[in-house]
Amino acid sequence: MNNTDTYNNPLITRYASKEMSYYFSDRFKFTTWRRLWIALAEAEKELGLNITDEQIAELKANVENLNLDVAAKREREVRHDVMAQVYAYGLQCPKAAGIIHLGATSCYVGDNTDLIVYYNALTLIEYKLVSLIEKLSEFADKYKAMPTLGFTHLQPAQLVTVGKRASLWIQDLLSDLELITQIKNGYKLRGVKGTTGTQASFMQLFDNDYEKVKLLNVKVISKMGFDGYFKVSGQTYTRKFDYRILSVLSSVAQSAYKAANDIRILQNMKEIEEPFEKNQIGSSAMAYKRNPMRSERICSLARYIVSLPVNAAVTASTQWFERTLDDSANRRITLAEGFLAADAVLEIFMNVADGLVVYPKVIRKHIDEELPFMATEAILMECVKAGGNRQELHEAIRVHSMAAAKSVKEEGKANDLISRIKGDKAFEAVWDRIDKIMAPENFVGASSMQVDDFLNEEVKPVLARYASAPRFKGEVNV
Q1: How far is CA 58 from the centre of its chain?
Q2: Whole-model pTM over 0.85
Q3: Strand ranges in 59-154 using DSSP code E only, listed in sequence order
């Protein structure tokens, strides 16, 4: 059976980056198991157990020398993945075979490795969020003063600016970044806890010296590069932590989903367009089409991510006493795919943000279609200041507005409200100023200044904090 005869997860073959895929690979998983066994052996030796430097050196020499075929064969016989790996590692380390996994339960390597994987994956998400925020902030700054129609209820409303709208996307992403920072700042490994979390096996190994057992936890966690661990656990760390992680990924997905939906609608309006490559085909039947496939893909993947926290909530709710195994198969899918999908969403969103195309003339055309109605209050006020009667002018504007709206909706004609006002002597006092009053920039309020304040006071300090972090370009694989 070759690769074309079996199912291939599209998150790996089509969407997620190689960096994220690596964290969920067998190589990263099982080399981390071996590093955890080494950390345990080293700590146990340092605390007085009969483990030699020669044994530890043998373990270290074979960390990367995975014999997964041997482990797979053994697992088919014993139906236990951890004991199969212990067996395979022991064959390579005959001197150390007897002290591998000493005092530990399967969740020592399983749960601690999962948490290490998730920490690395969260960090990758964190850095890609920063890259995305940086790209969008450049876009927001560039277009901070360009007027565009605002919408409430998906109906034309007061004008905003292109950059101001993008700042709303950035604000959501900043909140996601803050959630990631919070979860990482309080991050914990499971630690060295034993079968039901009581550390009974380690109490036996260290002759009931609880101080040594406590120190074993600290030493192992430190050797793995962490300083926090769950002070109490059952056999597993609390599965509510998985819910928390997936909730953060869901939050990222929600932000991307909202922004991508905005872009899809704007592309329909021909105001803003996601990148479209020279040889890209938009439709197999309609050659002229330029479908927003990137933004649609963001929404599609985000929808899947948003659904995952519910799954984790049910798993956390149904863990009986110190643990049940009905979480295992489930978690192998939901946590991995949550991260892979979130990674893909950010990769695509970065690509979109890096190549957004703005069409100012189309934007202005849409403004011109709606602005006459919005500008009537400003015209009314100017006429009153020139000595006109507010009630009479208001009635005149109402009549002209209704007629213009009928012309637009029922006859399909252009909005001629301003022409009607220019032809009504009641408004003669402002005829020479109407075009100036009608300038779109007069109707965007403080949009440009708000963007400046937002970028200077909230975005730039965050980017400065990540000045030395890697930056990502964002790729669309297929």
Answers
A1: 41
A2: yes
A3: 147-152
SS3 477: coil
- Give the residue numbers marked as catalytic: 153, 283
- Could you tell me if 123 and 184 are in contact, meaning their C-beta atoms sit under 8 angstroms apart? yes
Helix%, strand%, coil% for the chain, nearest 5: 70, 5, 30
Q: How confident is the model at residue 435, as a pLDDT?
A: 85
Residue 102 DSSP class: T
Measured CA distances, 377 to 43, 327, 397, 422, 424 (Å): 77, 62, 9, 15, 16
Token pair recorded at residue 378? 């400003």
- Residue 402 pLDDT > 80: yes
**Residues 306/345, Cβ–Cβ less than 8 Å:** no
CA distance 103 to 40: 9
> What are the helix and strand counts (H, E) for the chain?
19, 4
Token pair 């938009």: residue: 282
The DSSP call for residue 12 is I
Question: Is the confidence at residue 286, as pLDDT, over 90?
Answer: no
- The answer for residues whose C-beta is within 8 angstroms of residue 305's C-beta and 6 or more apart is 249, 250, 252, 253, 338, 341, 342, 345
> Tokens in use for 470?
């890697």
108 touches 192 (CB < 8 A): yes
DSSP label at residue 14: I
Phi, psi of 272 (to 5 degrees): -135, 145
Q: How do residues 144-159 score in pLDDT, each as one tens digit?
A: 999 999 999 999 989 9
- CA atoms within a 13 Å half-sphere pointing along the CA-CB vector of 31: 14
d(C-alpha 99, C-alpha 44), whole Å: 10
Which amino acid belongs to residue 280? Q
